[in-house]
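Progress against Task 2.4 (sequence-to-structure conversion) is shown through the following example record, which the project officer requested during the mid-term review.
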Amino acid sequence: MIKINEHFNKLQASYLFSDIAKRVSRYQEDNPDKTIIKLGIGDVTKPLPPACIEAFHKAVDEMAGEEGFRGYGPEQGYDFLRKAIATADFKARGADISSAEIFVSDGAKCDTGNFQELFSPDSVIAIPDPVYPVYLDTNVMAGRTGSFSDGRYEGVVYLESTRENNFVPSLPHQPVDLIYLCFPNNPTGSTISKEELKTWVDYARQNKALILFDAAYEAFINDDSLPKTIYEIEGAEEVAVEFRSFSKSGGFTGTRCAYTVVPKACVAYIADGTPQSLHGLWNRRHCTKFNGVSYPVQRAAEALYSPEGKQQAQALVNYYMKNARLIRTAMSDLGFTCVGGDNSPYIWIEGNMDSWKFFDLLLDKAGVVCTPGAGFGKCGEGYIRLSAFNSFENVSLAMDRIKNSLA
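Structure tokens generated for the chain above:
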């Protein structure tokens, strides 16, 4: 008989954002005359930059003629986009990353979830708490954890991120193999300094561990002293893989384009301790399971690196950060302790009550959707996350509603 992968049965009933969608749907059915303002999921609302649209149209027109038509493209991405990424995102920051070390994909969610496939099932994973659920759930599916008990999985090293450590976790007190880090952080909106990030790189080098560094929100960093890529830290190319996305900074959530950096110097080890290139392994996996991002989409992504595209993408970032500042100011004025909103589009708010209770309160009384912190892990209990990804008018209205509902 055919058997299932029983590790899937360890997962919690459903994905966090599916739970939220179901609650919102029920509320809307019960209150058809009420409008809902969604500040929960991190989905953008502004259209693609004009430079991207122009490049998109041009590429589609090319595909309409025999001379410009393209079939299967390179799985790793077209050179024109990979070279633009390497030059603007890394070499400009003093990071020696080549275009050959960049793999274009259809989303950072996919890559952060899939990269764990390269590693042994008995690898010890260290995951922040609270955390973006994909990191944890995909390792549960792979069988790297025990059962779920009291809000956590057995066999996982949890890196607690709390108000006491400014939501930047401390190094693990036991040996680990695979470390997930995300800065600017989702969900807390916290950032990490170069000095703090260096301690993680040094730890990974000393312990032959690997850091999977999610930098999907680097475009929202306003403080020039903060690292925008882990490769600004000496030696990181030996022990870190970085994930980036055009979803939030370029409005590509519905268009799908991202990339992962796997330096050729980055290695993992076979059983006898012999190092093996992760670049080669990921390339093999990528070519086997992925057929590449479409040519028009990659041309649209390339346009983000043009002078016009850079200005237009920055205008998008500035728009959402204006929303973020409004949210943080409004919630702080109501007496809540907040993190994020200065170098991140997320605001992490201490609610002084059960996370789901606060979620229901804001939905029922204000018609505003947040994300309950408990959905991100045990340390998220008592917090909610608000997202800046909406129109300024809706964010303003949402803050007025929350103020009135909590008065």
